[in-house]
Automatic annotation (TrEMBL):
PANTHER family: KERATINOCYTE-ASSOCIATED PROTEIN 3, TRANSMEMBRANE PROTEIN 54. Belongs to the TMEM54 family. One of its GO terms (cellular component) is membrane. Pfam families: BCLP (PF12304). It is a multi-pass membrane protein. It is found in: Membrane. The chain crosses the membrane at residues 20-44, 56-79, 91-116, 155-180. It comes from the Eukaryota. Keywords: Membrane, Transmembrane, Transmembrane helix. Its main location: membrane. It comes from Sakesphorus luctuosus. This is TMM54 protein.
Amino acid sequence: LNSGHLNPSSHQKVLMKTGLILLIAGHLNFITGALVHGTVLRFVMTPRDAVTLQYLIANTASVMAALLTISCGIAALMLSRYLTPATLKWALLTLSACSSLGCLSCLLGLVVAMGLTLGSQGRALLAPCAVANTALAPVSRECPFDPTRVYSSTLSLWAVSLLLELMEIIFGIRCLLLTLDLLRL
């Protein structure tokens, strides 16, 4: 080790592990966001409601950040194989910075969405249902989904997404620092 820099074989191993983790976390977060959108948000979206609009923005941003994380993971895996191309190093530096910042903003957006949901006890999620007592009519013509589980399911999926966003931030920053070291910056 010279002046605090890792040797090339250490960089390759760490980049490979980091890239794989980013790839897996990004895919899991993408799937989680798709589940939230497909099972809940497509039914509750009304353009004039600020709360559901915030849900849609936070969820869409989370899916887009997951795609950035997947791209960052692929670039890290490629760089772990071919350490010499400067273009690949700069691409990974850019992707890891964008991915980390994107995931941080999504994390904050999901915290706000969860806070709004908990604060309103899920009224925005259950707005499409015209049923007075959701426990008595699990699925009816007035409600396009099962209202008995939508509140807990959405919050659970958002909690999983929060953990994945946090993981993506940590490993995105790790990737950023490794790339800075490779570029000798």
